[in-house]
Amino acid sequence: MKRVALVIAAVAALVAGCGGADSDAADSATEATTTTGAYEPGPFFGECGSITDAEVQSAFGAGPFGQITRNSVGCQWETVGFSGPGVSFSWYRGSPIGRERAGSELIGRPAEDIEIDGNPGFQAETETLCEIGVQFGDDFFHWSITYSDQPAARPPCDVADELATLTVERKQ
């Protein structure tokens, strides 16, 4: 009997919270928009930042990729499993680039400001890893290059910069 009473109370609270005039809902939506500001979308970057597997391989230069993963938010190219050398591209829509930058700095990769074709971003690196994030409106993309414990075929930030520059040039 207590469960029935709890369910009835929860449903009543839900109905009361959802009730009200349409103008109340419109006022709330307007208030939320003016409080948080409007979303400013960036351009379309295409699958994998509009970069082909062959272009990634050429820039990376560390043997053939054993696995390539593509999904709605990015791509990952791996040579020998998850912890081995690899390249990744991620596209963040409506997400602050500062959070990604802060995360890099928290794990010991000091970030520096960069700019690619007038677009602000950051670069963070270690001896065998480099990541570059470039902002467009409220969106940004992120390239990460790691040679793990293998000798780097090319300086990781040279690879990341080449791929990030191509992504910027190919934006739609």
Please give the radius of gyration in angstroms: 22 Å
Overall shape: it is: globular
Order of helices and strands: HHHEEEHEEEEH
Q: Estimate the mean pLDDT confidence.
A: 81
| Percent range of helical residues | 25-40%
Number of helices: 5
Largest β-sheet summary: 7 strands, antiparallel
Would you write up a description of this structure?
The protein is α+β, with helices and mostly antiparallel strands and 172 residues long. The protein has 5 helices and 7 strands; from the N terminus they run αααβββαββββα. Helix 3 packs antiparallel against helix 5. The longest helix is centred in the first third of the chain and has 17 residues. The chain is globular, with a radius of gyration of 22 Å. The N terminus is likely disordered.
Considering the chains and any ligands shown, give keywords for the structure.
single chain; 172 residues; alpha+beta; seven-stranded antiparallel beta sheet; 5 helices; 37% helix; globular; disordered N terminus
Structure at a glance:
This protein is an alpha+beta fold. The protein is built from five helices and seven strands; from the N terminus they run αααβββαββββα. Strand 2 (74-78) and strand 3 form a beta hairpin.
Topology (elements, then pairings):
Elements: H1 2-18, H2 22-36, H3 53-60, E1 67-71, E2 74-78, E3 86-92, H4 97-106, E4 111-116, E5 119-125, E6 129-136, E7 139-146, H5 156-169
Antiparallel strand pairs: 1-2, 2-3, 3-7, 4-5, 5-6, 6-7
Helix pairs in contact: 3-5
